[in-house]
Prior knowledge:
With 92 residues, this protein is an all-alpha fold. The protein has 4 helices and no strands. The N and C termini lie far apart (37 Å).
Amino acid sequence: xxxxxxxxxxxxxxxxxxxxxxxxxxxxxxxxxxxxxxxxxxxxxxxxxxxxxxxxxxxxxxxxxxxxxxxxxxxxxxxxxxxxxxxxxxxx
Length: 92
């Protein structure tokens, strides 16, 4: 259960970086392309949430593995959300 909560934390960080933290946008083409990609943003949100939950104990292998899991979780959650939003608007 704790892993799911950490993945939800990573998803929240990912969504926040992409849609709510406006000062990150418009700085460079690289950061804009990173923030446009849910998989990329999810990866970085994953290692950030891993650090939040695991400090002061730090394992680089676990952090990279968790960042990759977070990337896939954020991407999948984003795609499911898009699908549900499109299905809802098609019904109306």
